[in-house]
């Protein structure tokens, strides 16, 4: 698929999934469709160990394309809503470590993109929020579900009911973002974090992500069963044999993994 509004740039094992629809990276149907395709590509490529989602130096994403949605009928939105959730589901389904590098605004659908990654690093001047209520609607790309799971239902309700913008400092305090750094450093910090997984045990990382994400959706006993199955399955991999043999012979942290 040829993409025009997003791209996947791979350097030294780290994929940067770049939104590129200036000036505000409004998430229209084309950009959403391209993000689905690029997320699947990042998941499948062996030369991508981890993924950074980035909107540019000035803005992450200001939200869904309101002009596009405003004219939609109920019948049209029934069809479009599948894509609206589908593109954030595709990002969340990348079976590798992912992190959002947030600059400027991450609002509405933009924040929902960031919520779809494992971690979020934000510039000191970033503003995040779910302002959909101010349009007479609610978040529709995962915000009501992922935000409440991340920061708790009462904080999620405060943000969604009010539609207010949240500073990077407050977002870090409530656990909405994981690290706040100067704006000029946010992409480098995210790439540095992602780089640690290059050459790592790819199947074990995928199993860890699957266990955590799937376990959050079920009761504890079912989650433990998911963990047990993922754990035992890794004993069929070369990396498990390599890692344990290296530990016994050379001590921790010296294994060279092949991702198989």
TrEMBL record:
<comment type="similarity">
    <text>Belongs to the enoyl-CoA hydratase/isomerase family.</text>
</comment>
<dbReference type="InterPro" id="IPR001753">
    <property type="entry name" value="Enoyl-CoA_hydra/iso"/>
</dbReference>
<dbReference type="InterPro" id="IPR018376">
    <property type="entry name" value="Enoyl-CoA_hyd/isom_CS"/>
</dbReference>
<dbReference type="InterPro" id="IPR014748">
    <property type="entry name" value="Enoyl-CoA_hydra_C"/>
</dbReference>
<dbReference type="Pfam" id="PF00378">
    <property type="entry name" value="ECH_1"/>
</dbReference>
<dbReference type="InterPro" id="IPR029045">
    <property type="entry name" value="ClpP/crotonase-like_dom_sf"/>
</dbReference>
<keyword id="KW-0443">Lipid metabolism</keyword>
<keyword id="KW-0456">Lyase</keyword>
<protein>
    <submittedName>
        <fullName>Enoyl-CoA hydratase-related protein</fullName>
    </submittedName>
</protein>
């Amino acid at each position: 698929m040829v993409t025009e509004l997003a791209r996947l740039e791979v350097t030294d094992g780290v994929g940067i999934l770049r939104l590129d629809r200036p000036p505000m990276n409004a998430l229209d149907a084309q950009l959403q469709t391209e993000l689905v395709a690029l997320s699947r590509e990042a998941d499948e490529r062996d030369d991508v160990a981890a993924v950074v989602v980035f909107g540019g130096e000035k803005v992450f994403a200001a939200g869904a394309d309101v002009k596009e949605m405003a004219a939609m009928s109920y019948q049209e939105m029934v069809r479009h809503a599948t894509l609206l959730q589908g593109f954030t589901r595709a990002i969340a389904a990348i079976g590798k470590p992912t992190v959002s590098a947030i600059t400027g605004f991450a609002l509405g659908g933009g924040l929902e993109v960031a919520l779809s990654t494992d971690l979020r690093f934000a510039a000191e001047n970033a503003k995040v929020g779910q302002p959909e209520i101010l349009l007479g609607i609610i978040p529709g790309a995962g915000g009501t579900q992922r935000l409440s799971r991340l920061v708790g239902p009462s904080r999620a309700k405060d943000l969604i009911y009010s539609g207010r913008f949240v500073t990077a400092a407050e977002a870090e305090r409530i656990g909405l973002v994981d690290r706040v750094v100067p704006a000029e450093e946010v992409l480098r910090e995210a790439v540095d974090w992602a780089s640690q997984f290059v050459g790592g045990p790819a199947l074990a990382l995928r199993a860890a992500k699957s266990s955590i994400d799937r376990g959050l959706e079920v009761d504890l006993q079912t989650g433990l069963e998911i963990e047990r199955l993922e754990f035992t399955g890794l004993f069929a991999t070369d990396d498990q044999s390599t890692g344990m043999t290296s530990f016994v012979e050379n001590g921790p942290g010296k294994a060279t993994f092949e991702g198989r």
